[in-house]
Amino acid sequence: MFHGDRPLKAMFRNREQTLRDQKMHGDGPRELFAEGRAPALVAFHGFGGTAAELLPTLRAVAADGFAVDAACLPGHGTRVENLQDQTYDTWLAGAHARAMAAAEKHGRVVLLGFSMGSLLAMELASERPTWLVGLVAMGNAVTVQPHTSWPLGVWDWSRQPMPDAYFSKPFAADLVDKTLMDTVVTYDRHPLRAALEVTRGAARVRPLVARIDCPTLVLHGRRDHVCSWKNAGWVASHVGTRDVTVRIFERSAHVLACDGEREQVAAEVVRFMKRF
User: Fold this and answer.
1) DSSP string, 182-196
2) Among 141, 175, 185, 241, which one has the highest count of C-beta atoms within 10 angstroms of its own C-beta?
3) Pairing of β 32-34 and β 12-14
4) Rounded to an integer, what distance in angstroms lies between the CA atom of residue 253 and that of residue 225?
5) Are 98 and 207 in contact (CB under 8 A)?
6) Contact 168, 12 (CB under 8 A)
7) Rounded-to-integer distance, Cα 39 and Cα 103, Å
8) What is the 3-state composition of the chain as percent helix, strand, coil, each rounded to the nearest 5?
9) How far apart are CA 181 and CA 25, in angstroms?
10) How far apart are CA 118 and CA 202, in angstroms?
11) DSSP 26-75
């Protein structure tokens, strides 16, 4: 979640500064909806992001004729202060509502979660809903890298209230191939109270992974600086199904759907969709 090499103090912003000088990284669609056949793909983006983080994959799935639902989660795609006091439960409720609407319309659903969105997708999958036929965990966030998890973990352990503070995000996405950087629409800073909710969500989801019994596709970039590629192996070894496929993309970082191997990432998801 945290990027850049500027002095640490210079990267923090308070609410007044944030209301005055925030901007959105990237330009382009923040959501994607496509009519099509079942199963519908319901996709959940990452923390502070939008469906733009997944657009090449979502467009490939839609082009193959499948229905796609990729909405912004609560607090996302608007102004960053709207994200500050969201909780893991509000994101989960938003994800559940999108999945249920797609299930009612299409009958069968594949859930795709990226980064923070993978936690939501895995928790929903652990409930074993009858409409769920498959799960895609992309750049999953069962753990985040120590430069993020340690300071947040120490703060949580201290039981001190997190201030209304924001940590600057110098660029839109963790990418090796920067070609699509300007199309990835995200906030330009992380609200720290909400960031703490992500780490709490990860701790909550890890024990639930064993309950996932649907076919599962796990995709991760080897050069991920946000969530270690080793998360892919952890999920694969802990899910409660033997029908699990893992693919590590050697030349991709965290936002692998937009990185240099994006066509291969999209092809893996389309191939998975065609199973159902």
Assistant:
1) GG--EESEEEHHHHH
2) 141
3) unpaired
4) 7
5) no
6) yes
7) 9
8) 45, 20, 35
9) 9
10) 10
11) S-S-S-EEE--EEEEEEEE--TT--GGGGHHHHHHHHHTTEEEEEPPPTT
Task: Please identify which residue in the block is written with the tokens 């600057």.
Answer: 168
DSSP 8-state code for residue 260: T
* pLDDT over 90 percentage in the chain: 82
Pairing relationship of beta strands 189-191 and 109-114 according to DSSP bridges = unpaired
Q: Are 110 and 272 in contact (CB under 8 A)?
A: yes
Does 50 fall in a domain?
yes
- Within a domain: residue 103? yes
Range of the domain at 158: 8-273
Q: Give the pLDDT score at 5.
A: 47
Q: Which two tokens stand for residue 122?
A: 């895995």
* SS3 at position 165: strand
* Cα(90)–Cα(87) distance, integer angstroms: 5
The pLDDT tens digits for 142-179 are 998 767 766 776 776 778 887 888 888 888 999 999 99
Collapsing DSSP states into helix, strand and coil, what is residue 216?
strand
**CATH code of 250's domain:** 3.40.50.1820
Q: Does residue 176 lie in a domain region?
A: yes
Classify 211 as helix, strand or coil. Answer: helix
Based on the structure, what is the number of domains in the chain? 1
Q: Is 206 exposed, middle or buried (0-12, 13-18, 19+ CB in 10 A)?
A: middle
Omega prior to 39 cis, within 30 of 0: yes
The distance from CA 48 to its chain's CA centroid, rounded to whole angstroms, is: 9
* 157 part of a folded domain: yes
